[in-house]
Amino acid sequence: PQTIFRKDYTPPAFLVDTVELGFDLHPERTIVANRITLRQNPASKRRDIVLHGEDIELVQLRMNGQLLGKDDYLLDHATLTIKKAPAQVVLEIETLCAPVQNTTLSGLYVSNGNFFTQCEAEGFRRITFFPDRPDVMAKYTVMLRADKASYPVLLSNGNLIEQGDLDDGRHYAKWEDPFKKPSYLFALVAARLVCQEETFTLADGRDVLLQVWVEEGNLDKTDYAMQSLKNSIRWDEERFNLELDLDRFMIVAVGDFNMGAMENKGLNIFNTKFVLANPRTATDIDYAGIEAVVGHEYFHNWTGNRVTCRDWFQLSLKEGLTVFRDQEFSADMIGTDTGRAVTRIDQVRTLRQAQFPEDAGPMSHPVRPDSFVEINNFYTVTVYEKGAEVVRMYQTLLGRDGFRKGMDLYFKRHDGQAVECDDFRAAMADANGRDLGQFERWYSQAGTPVVTARTRYDAVKRNFDIILSQRCAPSAGQQDKLPFHIPVAVGLLGASGQDLPLTLEGGKHAKGATTIVLELTEQEQIFRFRNVDERPTPSILRDFSAPVVLEYDYTDDELLHLFSHDSDPVNRWEAGQRLAMERLLKLTAQVAAAGGSDANLKLDPTFINAQRAVLTDETLDAAFRELALILPSETIIAEQMDVVDPQAIHTARQFMRRTIGAALKEELIAQYHANQTPGDYSPDALSAGKRALKNLCLSYLMVAPDMAELKLAQQQFEKAGNMTDRSAALVAMIHSGAATGPYLQNFYEDFEGEALVVDKWFAMQAAAPTTNVAAVRQLMAHPAFTLKNPNRARSLIFNFTNANPSQFHAADGSAYDFWAEHVIKLDAINPQVAARLARAMDRWRRYAPALQAKMKQALEKVAARAKLSNDVLEVISKALA
Ligand code: HT7
Ligand code: ZN
């Protein structure tokens, strides 16, 4: 397959001004009539019109009214080219496609009898021939025609300008989008759906219509999405002075969807998972996900739609920025400092769990990649989450006001344009009179920088020096890395845990500041703090001010001091994670040395006491305590090891959980009862935090439960008034290895008709360390299982391969065969989903030789298939390279 390089970008030869689309919708045979007006691009010397087209049949083509014959154009499996076209062209193109056969869920497809589209990144070319690239922006008018009884609702982007009945029971609707947009933002829906709608008044006094469309029977699950939409609109007005620019904004939920949601102009299409919620079916995490994704897609209206990407290498321009915006939105919605810190800790966990491993693996790429085979493989945690960290660093360096100035300038300069990451950086720099030249390396260099800190205290001169140095390991195509511009937020703690006022030599900081952002720009730099009366404990990288690994030789005492006192909650949590990680690594080594046995393991009382202190400190938010008590995940532990031994990690971590559960039994039971949330369910952060802590207590008590503890879980399951508590009880039971058959059966029967809950039912079994590959195969035989629905495939298969490491890496390699078999099967149905599954083997080279050999065999088995998609081929060949 062909690799596409960023350096090869050329402007389009022709620009498109208007697009008129006519759809005669039939599941088997949809006719698409497309009339586009094109004109030569003065910025290009080329005169060929190149249109993309994939899996569609050309019926007829006219240029400036003239029917074109086969000799007038070149047509292959991917493009239609008209050589030496005149400067002004009207093309009329008629094509055919078969939506019901389209299992890729890209382009126009049928889900549960309804029509939907998904065009990002390159799906529009599966609908009609078009220059399907984001720098071609045009105005669209869309006429939809379909059978009225089967598809009573006809939606597209922008405003509804006409609708009516046709012969033969068909009807039509005409939509017009007043804004220029790239083709990836086109959408249509033709369906039997119902909606919750509301008129909402914008800050400027305009009334807009908001709608959330779902299948009948789900109208009792749309309130939270609607509320989140209204909150998002308000938030963007207040925080960035950005208003909704349309008269109508629609969200439509669909059960078959490759990702979370899609920001099509005025017609956001969502995976049901991020729309539907009521207390009976959705957990606190689901509610938080809905708020974040509704916000994310809404915020794209400015960061992505009004200002879009010049080419797909710039994807993080819209995605990193929009993730940052949705993160800030979620934090502001909680509104408290600890709430903000809790969201920040969650972000750090995601980075460590998924982005750091990606950055160190075979698919490692810069935030702005230099090349790709299949763009769909680059909707990654690096582009999204690391991209958001890069945006966050502007705010850390420039301050909130400075960041806002940069945003204002960005929109002033680029509204209506398709631009590059460099344009965003230039707006930030110019609005603040700063040179951010070196900051560019965050976009161009892959890999996670490692910042090493050393300190020295001079009691006579009362100086405390922090010496920071940085390095970054080589990654594909990038042997030597240049120093990054890294903001390192630092505070110093005195002996009683108080923040010391800081005086940085040469720094210009407010008198009495207790956190200062050091700017590390060289390979090594010394930062000197003056007037320091005692040797302090440094709190480095507060609020996780940069996406780096921080190395500092903390003593246990220093970590315990930070864990008890740091005023920065992120670093307070981090100290606990370091204490736990040191022990987990030692225990893992001991298990491995003892041939897998945990017989002689010990956990020191100091650590247990520190855990006890946090658990019982009721001055701390429950949400924070919960995070402080969760041990680093098996994946994060694995990332710290040179040779990964998944079984030893699991045994060591389980030992630690069991020991904590036994030692703190009394306190865990007390906190379990103290953090009940009686009364009506509410997903607010305070209540969700209490439930999280309570359910963590339960999970500790259930590592090796006695009868009373088992009963506690069973009662919670039976009496729970919401899905958070019900599913937490069931998960605790499954993980404990207790006989759960009747409970699982009962859960399934209660929710058989709720697809999203059935997904949970598969997921919780797949991720349990008690579930082996044979059990997964058995679950696949369940009548509710299908590979065709991405949510369902993910719930069982992905949860097994990605969230159940001790079983996925079973010594006999049987789960690797299972993986290979399903990558191949899925690839024939949906390459995007298959390629995501393929990534489960990314880190295969880090395992012990016996496992490595089996993983390699499985990879080679997939690679040997004759008909692989580019999506899977790219992932597998990079893994094997
Ligand atoms: N911009 C969207 C990314 C996307 C996507 C969404 C649904 C299905 C396939 C997709 N390919 C790319 C989602 C977002 O980041 O908001
Ligand atoms: Zn996005």
UniProtKB/TrEMBL annotation:
Family classification: Belongs to the peptidase M1 family.
CDD domains for this protein: M1_APN
Enzyme class: hydrolase
UniProt cofactor(s): Zn(2+)
Matches recorded under Gene3D superfamilies: 2.60.40.1840, 3.30.2010.30, Neutral Protease Domain 2, Peptidase M1, alanyl aminopeptidase, C-terminal domain, tricorn interacting facor f3 domain
Record domain Aminopeptidase N-like N-terminal: where: 24-185
Protein name (database record): Aminopeptidase N
Keyword annotations: Aminopeptidase, Hydrolase, Metal-binding, Metalloprotease, Protease, Zinc
Start and end residues of each Peptidase M1 alanyl aminopeptidase Ig-like fold domain: 447-553
Organism, scientific name: Duganella aceris
Single GO term (MF): aminopeptidase activity
Signal sequence extent: none
Domain Peptidase M1 alanyl aminopeptidase C-terminal: 556-881
EC number: 3.4.11.2
Pfam families assigned: DUF3458, DUF3458_C, Peptidase_M1, Peptidase_M1_N
Catalytic activity: Release of an N-terminal amino acid, Xaa-|-Yaa- from a peptide, amide or arylamide. Xaa is preferably Ala, but may be most amino acids including Pro (slow action). When a terminal hydrophobic residue is followed by a prolyl residue, the two may be released as an intact Xaa-Pro dipeptide
Domain Peptidase M1 membrane alanine aminopeptidase, chain residue ranges per copy: 224-442
